[in-house]
Amino acid sequence: MTKKFNISVNHVTRVEGHGNIRLRASDGKVEHVEWQVPEAPRFFEAMVRGRSFEDIQTIVSRICGICSVTHSLAAIKGIEDAMGIKVSKQTDKLRILCHYGEQVESHSLHVGYLVAPDLLGQKSVIPLIESHPDVVKTVIRLHRLGNIWMEIIGGRMTHPITLKPGGFTAIPSEQKLLELKKAMEDAIPDVKILIEVLLSLVDKFPAFDRDTEYIALNHPDYYTFYHGDIASTDTDEKVPVHEFERVANEYVVPQSTAKWCKWHRDSYAVGALARFNQNAEKLMPMAAETAKQFGLTKGACNPYLNNVAQVVECVQVVEHGLQLIDELLTTGLKPEPVKVEPRAGEGVGCVEAPRGILFHRYEFDEKGLCTKANICIPTGQNHANIQKDFEALAPQIIDRPQDEIRLLLEMLVRSYDPCISCSTHFLDVEFV
Amino acid sequence: MSKLKVAFFDFACCEGCQLQVYNLEEEIIDLLELVEPVEWREAMSDQSDDYDVAIIEGSITRIEDEQRLKAIREKAQVLIALGACATTGGVNNLKNNFDMQDVKECVYGKDANMPHLDTYPTKAVNEVVKVDYMIPGCPINIKEFSYIVRCLALGKEPKIPDYAVCVECKMKENVCRFEYGEICLGPITRAGCDAKCPSSGMWCFGCRGFVDNPNVNAAKDVMAEYGKTHDDLRGKMLLFGSKQEFE
Fold first, then answer.
1. pLDDT of A171-211, one tens digit each?
2. ipTM of the shown complex
3. Helix (H, G, I), strand (E, B) or coil at B192
4. Domains identified in chain B and CATH numbers
5. Considering only CB atoms, which chain B residues are within 8 Å of A113?
6. pTM for this model (two decimals)
């Protein structure tokens, strides 16, 4: 008997943006499996041309609602690099702190609202409000912490206002920083609840290892999201962010409106697991302990464990965030200058978005008008790796019921925490 | 009383306005007493063609999106445009200042003519279908979102502010951005954002679109008083309002 079936998921749900999954099987064999990205392209690199350096952050923040702080910071670093602008230690710390808020907001949203329903056998977080009210309320509190955090420093929870080339348009008062500190301390028990819940569910993640290349920022002294060089698990070479094009090697494929990337192999992965695999030994004590609880160690290559690495990072940024606030309060806060004299130049900004490493490159003329931009998005860098995971995973699970195959493929996509708006916008599964 | 069935649909945008809905935090649970989301791809796996209210996020930039939007309009009793991309075109309008072929080549180079990368000039939702209510802003104000959804669920007519951001800004006792030598779009932009940008040391870039009848003469007086020209203003208006014109 010939058994043929197709699976087709148009617009994978519970992800940011639009992506499709296509699978065709016959006689227990996978004939074709494909990850497609049909998101409407938005052409930011074209749109910023002719705009003043002062407006770039405001525009490119809108590439992505969920990584708007990251995009803002990458743009600002690129502008400062192009114009030779140095910033104060205070600005540096406040930016990193603001960025940590985005990690907490994004990771808690992803693990709590988008992934948890899969682990608890539901189609969305809404039925969990009845079945697991304490879990949902814990997630809500953590999510709100991330939002308060960004609002206090960035002026707004989505699309920050205060982050500008040269510094800040407004800085938080000491009172506000103390409020934030208290909110972070109060959140530690919630983080522990989330850890317990995930520990009890971690066996629901499929046992699927596939060795791949992991790429993330690396700093010799600390677990970095903001400073450092580009590093790969395939080589000891550290690549300055200025040379990101030779890492990303972007190319266009017919199944995607987002560009794909590869370096030493056919694909590579970025995101929380990549950062962990690059920097795990530099985690702070509580975060290191969290990784230990999950048995997560350097070299992990099960893509579903990206969700675990995200929880480890939530602990890391709260722990380091508290330290940064103490340092800022000890030094005392001073208003930051933002007056910048434009000059012609070219520069790169690189920052780790919650979902992986992000690169912005800009060129400006002598009036500070943008003449060229190139933006390389983390989810774009993951697309080829998702495809390669599909090709390895699908034959392993092809004997299972179709609903289960579909779910495992969707969960795989979700584990990357894709941001398809960013990479253009993506997700659908089609069993064709 | 049966709950109002609500479906979210997204087009070209950053999905930050849907994200703002998550940012209602516990209040979402209250809203779920009044409305039943039947489709919300960013949050739920469920899908449905049976809805009362369609909430549309994002701009329309492709023929296939236009067809999808028209099909949604036919099914929905009420259609809401959510956020700047949907209500005015938002930052996506910046694309319209260039030739489309040039835009494609700039981003995709030699691959620009691959058919799946095609695009046309950005349209707001109301340039394609009838829009019943607008929730403006980039991002939206979640309090305004919650208010409008509650009104619709309770059969009331929602009203959003039709006065300028300056009103809210003055109430916050901010120093006027023009005093800093900046150009601020507060005098002509629709309030309802709590003047968040000028309150954080930034000029208003007009993300909520203009009030229904902008007091152009007053805006001109302000510009003249601070020695700014019409072109200065137009340059700033381009950021979020490339298509909104006034003389």
1. 999 999 999 999 999 999 999 999 999 999 999 999 999 99
2. 0.93
3. coil
4. 4-153 (3.40.50.700), 165-241 (no CATH)
5. 22, 43
6. 0.94
